[in-house]
Amino acid sequence: MGILQDLTEALARDTMAAMDEFGDERLHERVSKVLLDMSPTTQEAFMTAMRALLAERKGRAYLEATVKAKREGGTAPKAPFNPEAGH
């Protein structure tokens, strides 16, 4: 990885930890604004890392709930559906 990706990924992971510790779900948005003031390139790399981490967290929670339900003989939760998402 390059220095930009290394730095922004580390910052994103630290931001996620702080979000969890303080229950602040929007902390990454404020960190992003600080980065944007100095470097739009760094801000975009940070937001890419944040989106990946947040999506992974959501996907993992769904997977864990599905596996638990199946193992216990229950019904898996429905996956969210957003026809406007384009995927």
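(ticket continues) Second input and output from the same batch:
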Amino acid sequence: MDYPGQTSLSGALPAQGPIIPDTTLNLSNSVQIPLERIVTWGLYAGAAYLILDPLAPNWEIEQAAFPDGHYHFSLKMKRFYAGGAGESRVVFHQRAKELMRQGGYDGYQVVEYSEGMESSVLGSQRVSQGVIRLTRSAGSTKVRDGLADGKRNGRN
């Protein structure tokens, strides 16, 4: 099959005419959309998706461990978002419960918690900070210590 014009990608592109051909998409006899407009809408939608990224988590958590089971959390919300502005406290408690379960603790106590806004040239950003203390009940400590001693002594 013979193709008119250049068929390789050498030289300055486009070889002739615009990159987007001057054509329309005929949806019906009365509705035609120029291809240039479809490409423009696609670029806008792609840019909006990259900025908003609806699948990314709304909150970023940084944590630091301190002695006696204390943890400091620093949460920052995405700068550009579509929802989730009021869920800082929920995310804070979810992370505290995760640490509690991973460490084998029975509970946690919120020592300090605050929410606020940080302003910058690109706009404001929701932030929150807090400190928790992981706790064990007196009875569970004895049970855990007894199980550990029993395994060391060959019992069980």
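Agent notes: The chain has two domains: 18-52, 59-142. The mean pLDDT is 78. Closing as not reproducible unless the customer responds.
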